[in-house]
Amino acid sequence: MRVHLRLSVQQSGTGVWYQGLVPGSGDHTVGQGKRLTFELQGARVFLACGKYISPFHDIPLVVETEQGNDVPAKKPKKNESEVLFNMVVEVPRWSNAKMEIATKEPLNPIKQDVKKGKLRYVANIFPHKGYIWNYGALPQTWEDPDHTDKETECCGDNDPIDVCEIGTQVCLPGQVIQVKVLGILAMIDEGEMDWKVIAINAEDPDAKNLNNIEDVRKSRPGHLEATVDWFRKYKVPDGKPENRFGFNGQFKDKDFAVEIIKSTHEHWRALVQKQTNSGEIACKNISCCESPFKCSADEARDVVNSVRTSIMLFHKDDRIHNNSRQKLLGLS
């Protein structure tokens, strides 16, 4: 399949909002032979699998799941310990732009966060550059703000559960990868529960050697400590206090992480089936059979067309020299 990455350039201040995004591996299997493409339109990354989908609601949480007539990704085929999860990458490792799934927009595209009219970036937390892992979310999960965690006594942050992918590949915004869950960190952000799942790309060369959080500690000395330090301090340059952590900042193991993921999946199911208060969360989807928010492929396309701007189209097999690419983007 030839995969297209569409790049829309939006000016911001003296520079270009997003630049240099060239497809390296733009199609991704998400289970049952389905493949995704991704494109950037109007400063938003929309995902498509033959038709436009929501990365929040339409990508199965678990790879190779039994798809019944209910909400997708209900039960895995494999033994629980062998389950792989789909991860939607929002922010590539070493980058600073604060990209995230837009939970309040129809089809939930990925876009850069804006505050007071300005695009948001995370500061470099010495000695690190940008995010120190590929950062993203598990689809079909939701940290319910009306649910109080019994361990930390904090409510959810109203977002999909976050993932830090520690593999060697630098991913792209909108890329969907299959990950092994290794553990979890209980971050408390301004009083809200904000779990951070630690995982590795199942196709990473190190994946076969990493099966739990202790394997990470042994094979990558200092990496977990750096993760806690980064999350503690990354909002300080913006004038906010340091973040706190449950369990004294200790990582919980894989089994604990899977139980938290299961819980957030059940909260998501209630969300898309309108069994709980969705607030401003946009639940439009094309695949959740019992969801009152399900829409047609044509309706999904209309959502994308409504935000479509001038698009530059690159093919997966294009080899564009950097100078030529800069000229195309108007940077030279």
TrEMBL record:
Top EC class, one word: hydrolase
Protein name: inorganic diphosphatase
EC number: 3.6.1.1
GO BP: phosphate-containing compound metabolic process
Domain of life of the source: Eukaryota
Keyword field contains Hydrolase: yes
GO cellular-component term (any): cytoplasm
Native species: Dicentrarchus labrax
Residues forming coiled coils: none
Gene Ontology molecular function terms on file: inorganic diphosphate phosphatase activity; magnesium ion binding
Keywords, alphabetical: Acetylation, Hydrolase, Magnesium, Metal-binding
Sequence intervals crossing the membrane: none
Cofactor: Mg(2+)
Subunit comment: Homodimer.
Membership in a protein family: Belongs to the PPase family.
